[in-house]
Amino acid sequence: MANMGKTLTALGSYWKGRKPLILNKACILGCLLPATADSKRDLEIFEMLMAMDGESLQYRLKQKKDKTSRELIERVNHTPYKELVQAASRPEECADDLFGHIWDEVNAHLGTRAGSFPELVEQLGMMRFGHRPRLADTFCGSGQIPFEAARLGCDVYASDLNPVACMM
Fold this sequence. Notes:
Elements: H1 3-6, H2 21-32, H3 39-49, H4 54-64, H5 67-74, H6 81-87, H7 103-110, H8 117-129, E1 134-137, H9 144-152, E2 155-158, H10 163-167
Parallel strand pairs: 1-2
Helix pairs in contact: 2-9, 4-5
C-alpha cells in the first residue's frame, strides 16, 4: 500500500501502489489462453509462459549472479519453490532468450505458430475473437496494465482523468 492513500510519493518518479508487471501479464494471458481437456498440461504451458518452469527458473537464478542464487542452482531440485522464486531475477529483468525454449511445446499444445509473445497473443486473439485482442482501460492511472498489454501485442486504448497519473 502506498502512503497517504496511494497518492504519488511526493510527486516522485514511481507509484508505490503499483503491482509488478508480471501480475498484469498473468491476467492478460489468463484471459486469452484456451482451457483444454488436459488441465494439467494447460497449467504447465501457463507456467512456461510466466517463466515459472524449471528451465526458466534456472536461467533466472543464473541472471541474478549473487552467492545465494549460485548455491540454489546446485540444489534446485531440493529447494522449496518459494525460495527459488525469491532468489531469482524477475522475468521482466531477463533477456528475451529466457523464453526461447518454450515455443515448440506451447505451439504444439495451443495449435499456434508463435515465436514471441506478440505473435502468440495475435494468434490467440484471432482464434478467439477473429482479430488481435483489444484492451481498453478507462481509468488507467499510471498505465501499468495498458503498458504490459501493449508489450504483449494487444491493441491498447487508455485514458485517465488525473493529469499527474497520465504524465507517469
